[in-house]
Amino acid sequence: MTIAQWTRISTDAFTVALVAYMVAMVGYFFYLAFRREQVWRAASAIAWFGLLTQIVSIVARGFAAGRMPWGNMYEFTSLTSMLVVLGYLVIVERRYGAKTLGGFALAFSVITMLIAVLFLYVGPGPLLPSLNNYMRNIHVTAIIFAFSLLALGSGVLTPLFLYKEWRERTDSGSADTGGPKPIMGGSVDAAPGQAVEEPPHFAAGADEPVGTTGRRGLLPPSATLDRLAYRMIAFGFPIWTFAVIAGAVWAQSAWGRYWGWDPKETWAFITWVVFAGYLHARATAGWKGRRAAVIALIGFACLLVTYYAVNLWIGGLHSTYANA
Amino acid sequence: MSSTAAPLTLRRSLALVWRSLRSMRTALILLLLLALAAIAGSLVPQQGTSPATVAAMFRSHPLRADIYNAVGLFDVYGSWWFTLIYVLLLVSLGACLLPRTRAFVRSARIPPQPARELDALRHHAERTVALSPEQAIDHSEHLLRRRLFRVRRIDGALAAEKGIAREGGSLMFHWAFFLVLLGVVIGKGTGFTGYAVITEGQCWTDAAVNYDGNLQQGRFASLGDHTGIQICVKSFEDTYHRSGLPMDFVTTAEFRSPSGEALGEQVIRVNHPASIDGISAYQNAFGWAPIVQVRRGSRLIASGPLQFEKDPAPKGISDLALPWHGALRLPTTDPQTGLQFVLWPDGRAFLQVAQGGQAPMMTTANHPLLILTAYRGDLSSELRPQSAQLDTRGLTKWGSGQLIEQGRTVDLDTGALLPAGRTSRAGDLTVTFAGLRQYTVLQISRDRGVRILGLAAVLILVGLLASLYTARRRVWVKARPGPDGGSVLEVGGYALQRQSQFEEEFARLVERLQAAAGGPSPPVSTEPERVGTR
């Protein structure tokens, strides 16, 4: 096949995936509101379909460019949104059985894909020599995985946790306390009684139409959301650490210094520091729960700056990456 | 604090400071302060990474620039307050780590403690097995040791523990940051970074004077501390894709020891530095160096490659479409002469521009053209006598611009191009475009801290993974005689972290223990076996 054909396949598959994600997102939100099991099944299936199409798009892009398909902002963004959907479907939905969060995860991916296709698209092409490096592939692969995990944890699950936690606080004392009360901001280890596998509202009546669920939460309990967010961030953090180290190794060979306080490096460091702060805050009395979640939100903002703002507005050595 | 409290003596206040440094809250606040300070450094242009922007700011907003400069905002990462934050953070970390490490060593020495009543534990199971109690315990001990438990045998029962890597990993992760500091201080303090500009066919020696002011030395490095290694550039190649995107930049160089013996040839390209005797050479930049010869009659008064420069390309125009410029100064002529050159490595580009078109990208030399403008007068008023741009204030133009093709000679006195093979009139000043070479710019650096940092990176990663993904577990095993010469194995477990996962782990461990102790003893116990959570 020719480069043009591969490019065509890649962009078409991208569009199909985007549409599929949008449909699945609407389905998930519908399920969140009305609890129709069939709608959830359909939404999940469509999301899986979208995921596979997007993988096709990314692979085709790799063939069109003749290299690993994460060479510029468009490709990076596409890969990130794919990994967020993958992470949601495999970890959150499959492993933890949380069905009501799909709309939010997909909304993240839809927004990033729209940004990618509207503002960041460039045709496939070769890379600058300084980017053409084995260590760089490792660095970028790790950064993409870490970015996706951290974004899912801090950008999708943490706001939901904060919302749910606020609802639980304001609703406390009202009639419906079906199960044991979630421990506010309970950590992974602190709430053994809180079985992740069976949050109270999933047990009975979870699929009842919205009229009868009344004010019972649409979302999993805050303790579950907190734990999920923590798992994602604790999974992503060592990968981010590794990615920053791999980047330093690459910088040492490409520019003769492992660290130069280039804006990208600086922001990767800031992001690392903020998430390290989050992990420590969860182990500190008085900082668990809401305060730690606020730090995670700051971390998410840092992630966005590290990736988008630095490339588009601040510049630096990594900006070659933007128009490569 | 109440008024009856003892007065705040030096000792007490030190103790107070030490205590507050040890608290996690202080560490957290310092971490976030570090992040804030780093943000400041990414928003204000830094002298180290973008000196031109800083200089521009001094011109456009002098007052603001002066204030920024006074508080160190142009060099955030070297400023006293940034240093203060990370030093305080490390002190706080050390204050936290010392007692933790002591406690860790102490607890690692304490053998696993026996438990009296296993059925009081959250995780508890009983199994009938075929082996005798003593053998069952033997086999269980073996199994637990193989599964990385520390096992202690007391009175025919087992007490086992694992997961010491959790705290150990966390300590290793945190201590490694002191190693990072050490690596940076050693590396930057005793190292240097500079740029060597070498034309093809020429040699360059690593000595402080040869860096032309492009040398940054560490605080503990002396100027005489250079290796004296020679780098002789044999060739430089730059290759491009058809789109003009660079493909590769490659310098082939021979290294020689200070005494002149050959140390072998190395290829230096982007991402592939050459290292020798503790210094590393990185491909950094390149340029054109036409060989220009100046004669007075038949006497050669100046000859050699001139390193040309190029202005940064305006937005939207490729770097490769711009011509290069260089200058040659002849202070010994009377009156003094200055030659200003413009080089088009691809002559066709010049023709297209001359016809009002846009210059194509000049990726290779092709009928190169040199455009010469000569000046006469006084060179001594020049402020930057090394610059590629002639300062013409003390000079007057001499003749009009001359186009010189490679291999041709121009007579400055008559302003005519000499026919090939013809020499000029005696006493005339002539300029010959004898050839075209390239020069390469190598970044030369020495950093002795890189290995220490590599070790620190490994410790950080391993420590982080161990502290996040291991968990402490305690397991106890007892055996009492059972039916048919077998025994009843009693297992208890306790998880210090990740309780929810331990349930499954424990059930699997019980199965393994039962299998290790000979499997279920026949006949299978009529009583339903119990396992799981209470």
What does this protein look like?
The complex is a heterodimer of chains A (324) and B (534). Chain A is an all-alpha fold. Helix content of chain A is 70%, strand content 0%. In chain A, helix 1 packs antiparallel against helix 4, helix 2 runs antiparallel to helix 3 and helix 9 runs antiparallel to helix 10. The C terminus of chain A is likely disordered. Chain B is α+β, with helices and mostly antiparallel strands and 534 residues long. Helix content of chain B is 32%, strand content 31%. Chain B has ten helices and 21 strands. In chain B, helix 5 runs antiparallel to helix 7, helix 6 crosses helix 10 and helix 7 runs antiparallel to helix 9. Chain B is elongated, with a radius of gyration of 38 Å. Chains A and B meet through helix 8, helix 9 and helix 10 of A and helix 2, strand 8, strand 11 and helix 9 of B.
Q: Which two chains form the greatest contact, residue counts included?
A: A-B, 51 and 49 residues
Give the overall average pLDDT of chain B: 85
| Portion in beta strands of chain B | 25-35%
End-to-end Cα distance of chain B: 47 Å
Question: How would the blueprint of this fold be written?
Answer:
The complex is a heterodimer of chains A (324) and B (534).
Chain A: H1 3-34, H2 37-65, H3 73-95, H4 102-120, H5 134-171, H6 200-203, H7 210-213, H8 222-255, H9 263-281, H10 290-314
Helix pairs in contact in A: 1-2, 1-4, 2-3, 3-4, 3-5, 5-8, 5-10, 8-9, 9-10
Chain B: H1 10-22, H2 24-43, H3 51-60, H4 62-70, H5 80-109, E1 123-129, H6 133-146, E2 150-154, E3 157-162, H7 164-190, E4 192-199, E5 203-205, E6 216-217, E7 230-240, E8 246-256, E9 262-269, E10 274-276, E11 279-296, E12 299-305, E13 324-330, E14 336-344, H8 347-354, E15 369-377, E16 395-405, E17 409-411, E18 416-418, E19 429-446, H9 450-469, E20 473-481, E21 487-495, H10 499-516
Antiparallel strand pairs in B: 1-21, 2-3, 3-20, 4-6, 4-19, 5-7, 7-8, 8-9, 10-11, 11-12, 11-19, 13-14, 14-15, 15-16, 17-18, 17-19, 20-21
Helix pairs in contact in B: 1-5, 2-5, 3-4, 5-7, 6-10, 7-9
